[in-house]
Fold TMC5 protein.
Amino acid sequence: GFYTEEELIRNLASMSTGERIKAIQKMPETMKKKREIRNKVLQEITKKSRHRCVQLSCCTDCRQGAAVSFRRFGNTLSEYFHLLQFFHKTLKIIGAKFGTSVLSYFIFLKWLLTFNIFSFLINFSFITIPQFIAAEPNDLSFTGLELFTGAGYFQQTVLYYGFYTNATIRKIEHGPSYNMQLAYIFTVGLYFVICFLILLFSMAKSFSKNFINPQAYAGNASKLLCTWDFNITNEKAVKLKQKNLSTQIKEDLTEVNREVLNFSVKERAVRVMIHLGSWAASLGTAVAACAGVYFLSINNLKLFVNGGKNDLESQAAMLVLPIVASLLNTFIPFFYSWLGHLEKFQTPGHHIYVTIARNIVLKISIIGILCYYWLNVVAASESQ
């Protein structure tokens, strides 16, 4: 029969830990309601342990109270870690709109961001902080352009890579020392080892989760019958879940029905011409952008070689080339996205893949031109 909330909490409190966890998981309630029930059960257990202090020894009572408190602390900590997940809602929206294949790319970007944050914490703790301690007073003036150029005042700070030393840091004579060479080696080694363990654990978890794929046996019916979370009661979450499942099934059906979609010869010719024209336009735009960056860099170099400017004007002139390159990398992808809409791909995933490929070609081309400019033109002018 149905229990009142008080009876339910008392029954759960009388169960063992494993039985209680399974019983709460099977409840057709929202996650918020389950957390409330779990916290009330833990409070009830704490009250019972206090009432039984006469029957139990002091040591046993303290041990049980500590175990309950530790369990409650662990549950609270896991909830906060769940809230700290980056872009959790955004990734769900991407998966619902574009499918799992596009979602995997953004999950990869999320992994890269996580690794970079982790790398920053390690490097800042063991490399940057000792450099702060050993740094000498900075006598250069700050003009504000350093925020964009990275030169000037920042050349004598930890923000400038050439500022770092590889010597042993000893702030007090005959005091403790800090070997920067060993710090570099152990910091990088520790970072790679921890990243390897994280990747290994993630791969093992993914393998154990996807070892038995029900879709291989039941087809798309498993997604409709076996993957729905009936604890979802929020209207927005329900619609997002429905859209996600719909997009996944559409992806699978597109792969299955790809051979069924037959176009006439004229339609195929038109589609091929549109694709070729779009690629020609995208590659032509990339070539034009690279040519503009190259000629701008050459003219900018001539201004530096001729001289006649003070230090502030020289730093301001240094910003012209990166600003132009940044603007090209910002606005040309909108043109590529418009070309993708013009091509009318069968799935949103194909549109995303082609747009990403064109953006990669653009960025690599501009970087290649800049590398040629720095390694050949600038190096030759400095040698002269």
Remarks:
- Strands lie at 168-169, 178-179.
- The chain has four domains: 5-84, 93-211, 220-261, 265-383.
